[in-house]
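Checked the freezer inventory, then went back to the computational side. Two predictions to log before the end of the day. The first one is the construct we discussed on Monday; recording sequence and tokens without edits.
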Amino acid sequence: MRNEAIARRPHRRRTRALTLGVVATLAISTLAACSSDSEDGEDGQITLRVGVFGQFGFEEAGLYDEYMELNPDIRIEQDSITDGGDYIAQLRTRLSQNSGLADIQAIEVGNIAEMTNELSDAWVDFNEFENVDPSHFMPFKLEQATDPDGRLIGLGTDIGPTGICYRTDYFEQAGLPTDPAEVSALFAGGWEDYLEVGEQFQANAPADVSFVDGSPGVFNAVVSAYEERYTNAAGETVYAESQGVSDAWDLAVDASERGLTSQLEQFTDEWNRGMANGAFATLAACPAWMLGYIQGQAGDAAAGLWNIAESPAPSNWGGSFVGVPQASEHQEEAVELAAWLTAPEQQARLFAERGSFPSSAEAQQLPEVLNATNDYFQGVPMGEFFSAAAAEIPSSPIGPHDLEIQEAITQGLVQVDAQGESPDGAWENVVSLLDNQLAE
């Protein structure tokens, strides 16, 4: 999309954060109760409740048990809601009512802007507690969790530095290099080079294999590397004028029109089956957590077939925070636990055991992280790789409507990629949809 066309044609963005879509309504009574005003033990123990979504990792990695051993006066109980959309709908309601909240609540990065703006007063300011040292976090992670008044309402857990994951067997069959350094060199000139390599691949590709999963995945990879995407530094929605959105939309459409995609939407059942069946050769945006996802979906049959190359423009995809609601009756103890769970040593342990890449710059340099490899990905030095990628992540403003915008853009690109809609027609549909949604 040329610059003069930016205002005319909307751009899409398909970046799916770890939570995939926000559920607008929720019957609170049907959800697991997580109240900070639960009774403490008669033996003087303080019960701290932690509210999370999905398999967040703290419990699975044994961090709660370790903390309780170190602090016998503390008992930790976790409430987990499987679906991220259900979780955020419940959290919004309980924050607005100032009741029913856990002592610590997880916050997904796609919702952090909402929490640092209209709901900021519902959270404690970590800056006010002497036992919290935020200096070890990456600067962009602190910026995301800081409200306009300078209050730090969340401590980062993980981030998602990206590379390009690719199937070495398919590259070899297509006559392309397979060594990560050589593949990285193919893409080094920019995303246009990535598409050029895609055309070379497609000309000699194995039967029924496409270069990339879908145009939304290309969009996500490209737009995520820009400092300004959907929201500017003043908090204004600017997706229709954003150069990043414009460039990403054009490249995603180009990938579709060149016939390089499998026409799949990420995190759908069809996409999972495509990964399991080897329907595509690359993922344009492949954060650290995606390696485990690929292994889970592709299974043993694809062990040793995947590798990862450097992205022409590193970015961040995903990540979360923990915050302490003002409603907690045990703020001091909850803050101390939140700081411990997100300390460098615990972040390194989460990475080693769960694959959650640390948001702590200090943790990224610990041996457990820096020396980590991945046998499924041909022994790739994943700790070293993603630490280098993390250093290049831009600091990008996040707005309260980013998730809505990215989902609308995703659906627009699906219309182009899989439904035959013209790019201009799809963009008009995106703008029309967002005009209605953002006006509500």
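The second is the one RB wanted added to the comparison set:
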Amino acid sequence: MKNIGESFSGLSGKKSSDFGHGEAKYITYLNILNNPIIDTKLTDKIEIDNKQHLVKKGDIFFTISSETPQEVGLSSVLDTNLNECYLNSFSFGYRLKEISMFDNLFNSYNFRSPNFRRKMYILAQGISRYNISKKAVLNETICFPKISEQKQIGKLIKLMNSLLSLQHRKMELENQTSKAIYNYLFDKNKPFYFKDNKTKKVFLKELGTTYSGLSGKNKTDFGHGKAKYITYLNVNKNTIANHNLLDLIEIDKKQNEVLNGDILFTISSETPEEVGLASLWPYDDTNIYLNSFCFGFRPNSKINNLWLAYELRSLKIRKNMYKLAQGISRYNLSKKSVLNLQVDVPSDAEQNFDSKFVKLINIQTKFLSNERNELLLLKKFLLQNLFI
């Protein structure tokens, strides 16, 4: 790098009272940290000082100090000219000698590519705080294809980022729509979809029975065996439990087995918001147990299990769960108090309609998430193989 460019320092000899006012600007540390290309709207004010280095279009800035090695040597490219603008003191600038031979968009990705970042991790020195020297960075090598190829690669990665941004926006809109529909179906009075709609209040204890999670176990019992157990986080995060997130344990006939259609509740957490979260187990596996920080609820034939799982995660039920959570540093919930909760149960036809509708929404959300993951994998592949 020292053969094709030269470094310059950021602001020096300044004190805190010099910042926040003046006719000049400076590029902040966070602007470099968070943006491959400098966001010119996020500059701060400072007085004009002819002793400082002015930045110009095409300059590349590097962070030189951070609390983590992952944030040291992160780069950002200035893609426009700024009048009377300097660089913060926790970064240094790098100016290419033959600027016409380099594409700014390509540089913004090249200096943040996985290959170049690995070099920066190695150069980061420190324990509680990490630093990097300009000299060490300038002694590193970096590859550049001809300018025409740089431009094509830059456009390709920019296109990938645009697709990811659009996908992220689609997911945000989908989540907003899903939340609105979910709240409408389970939290508010909705129109009568069916003529036989006869909602009635029922205590949860009238709809099924409870059982406990694993008991009498120690740390050595977990992580091996021919049986499986459903973890606390699985119940916490999923309205429908994830079959791929089970842990191993030995078969123990003394424990309660989880059956298809059971609904699982969290009963202990550090926050009241995580107590009483419900999750449906819709699988037919044998030798499946439940972790000790949850309890199971086995609905009877009078209720649609899928509908009940969604209903128990609705806002109105969650508010009641908060009230039942007892504790200070850790919150707990009793099975008895949960069984005394009242649930508004509609007709069978409406239960079926609501549960199928929400299930379709969740399938769409998962589809969008899978699309985004595929785009991320493609971008990762491009970054690893286009920037050597």
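For RB: The longest strand covers residues 19-27. Confidence is low (pLDDT under 50) at residues 192-196. Let me know if you want it refolded.
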